[in-house]
Design goal:
153 residues, alpha+beta, Sufe protein. Chain: A, 4-stranded mixed sheet, 4 helices
Length: 153
């Protein structure tokens, strides 16, 4: 497939996740909840996770953000649902390496692998990683019910 056709396919998948995000909504009171705000661009995400025996049983996100932020959160929810917290942490680290331009095998990220091009636009890395950073807070503190903060400048 020609590079321009491949780029177009990636754009279409990203736009589809942005326009029709997967796992968008809320889970309710039995979930861990993290709200993160990116003060640089104004993106806000609330991520909710329900765990059972250290496994991400349910996951949902809400908020508002740019197409990259929304698409990335949608892709992230698809990639981590059904995974252990350890597996989700490994995927988060893999995604971080991907968007920083490191040469990685991104296949485990599923559609998230298509966001590797974000590395060419450093200002968009925070947009792409917002949902993943919210997930990392839940992974680091799985017993805390609610977190709310800004990501670092």
């Amino acid at each position: 497939m020609a590079l321009s056709k491949l780029d177009n396919l990636y754009r279409q998948v990203i736009l589809d996740h942005s326009s029709h995000p997967h796992h968008h909504g809320t889970l309710g009171e039995d979930s861990q909840k993290v709200e993160l705000h990116n003060p640089t661009c104004g993106d806000i995400i609330t991520l909710e996770v329900q765990l059972k025996d250290d496994i991400i049983e349910k996951i949902a996100f809400s908020g508002h953000g740019c197409s990259i932020s929304t698409a990335s959160a949608s892709m992230m929810t698809d990639a981590v649902i059904g995974k252990t917290l350890k597996e989700a942490s490994e995927l988060s680290e893999l995604f971080s390496d991907l968007v920083q331009g490191k040469d990685v095998d991104a296949e485990p990220l599923q559609d998230g692998s298509m966001l590797g091009g974000v590395a060419k636009f450093p200002a968009r890395i925070k947009c792409a990683t917002l949902g993943w950073k919210a997930l990392n807070q839940i992974i680091a503190n799985p017993t805390v019910k609610e977190h709310k903060e800004n990501i670092e400048e």
